[in-house]
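Example record

The entry below shows one chain as it appears in the dataset: sequence first, then structure tokens.
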Amino acid sequence: IHPTFHIGLLYKYEQNDDALFPRHNTHTFYDWLVDEIMAHQWMNNKVELLIKWNLRDMTWEPVSNCKELEALDRYLKLQGIQDIHQLPQRAKKYA
């Protein structure tokens, strides 16, 4: 196997069209990998979320990495709140 490719596979770069694809952020690469948010915890006055990935891994992620996830919207709705800062300080410890 040679690390080469045919020139026919190259395409001209075209920037995203925000009118056609609103809220499409090319920097959010892991949205499709998240199954659900399992829990949350407060560490030094910051929220961390326990993310269950589609490959069955679970990791604690800072909420700053998760603000654009639809799973976060679902988690907040299940908690009966609308804002991250309303999450209870003493959540059940998970894992």
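Notes for this example: Strands lie at 34-43, 46-53, 58-62. The CA atoms of residues 7 and 70 lie 38 Å apart.
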